[in-house]
Task: structure prediction
Amino acid sequence: MGTRGRSVLVCAVPTFRDLQDRCGGISSSVLADRLRELTEAEIVQRGEHGYSLTDDGSELLHTVLVMDEWAIAWAERTKRRRHPKEAP
Result:
């Protein structure tokens, strides 16, 4: 799902339509393909009321969020080193 879609499964149990709305204009065929791939990889599961992360999916989400925090901090450090006069 990429950056835009990485957190769409974090809360509640979204339906296909909920996920499509949260992914900002993704086509239904692309979303269906991604959900199929994630289901086959046992990252996402489809239940009676919608989609949710599996235990592996939750672990992956945690890892991605930690990496995202690191990347933001790294970008700030890099910016300060390259442009020290602009740093706060």
